[in-house]
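note to self: dont lose this again. the chain is below, predicted strucutre after it. 107 aa total, dont forget to put it in the shared folder this time
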Amino acid sequence: MQLPPKVTNRAFERLAQIIPASSNKGLRVAVEGGGCSGFQYNIELDTKHEDDLILEKEGNKVFIDSTSLPFLSDAIIDFSDELIGARFVIENPNASSSCGCGTSFSI
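---
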């Protein structure tokens, strides 16, 4: 059974800082072929597409397309702010390995 991804409060809080809640934009999290491990995450600000799953809290939205959804089943979308940089990160239980950059994985 596929479970939808979860978005942490920290990720929603960061979205609230960069996108006005009244905006129709949100964070798009997609999985594409490529990267050094076979698949890679594409994370960008975008608007809703017709087949998107919408994860929402207090007007802040995360969009995931139907093609990417199986790859992100039960994943956690978070925001990390460390000395090496601030970015949205994905903890994906479906990935059998990932590369050091954190944006590429294999299943």
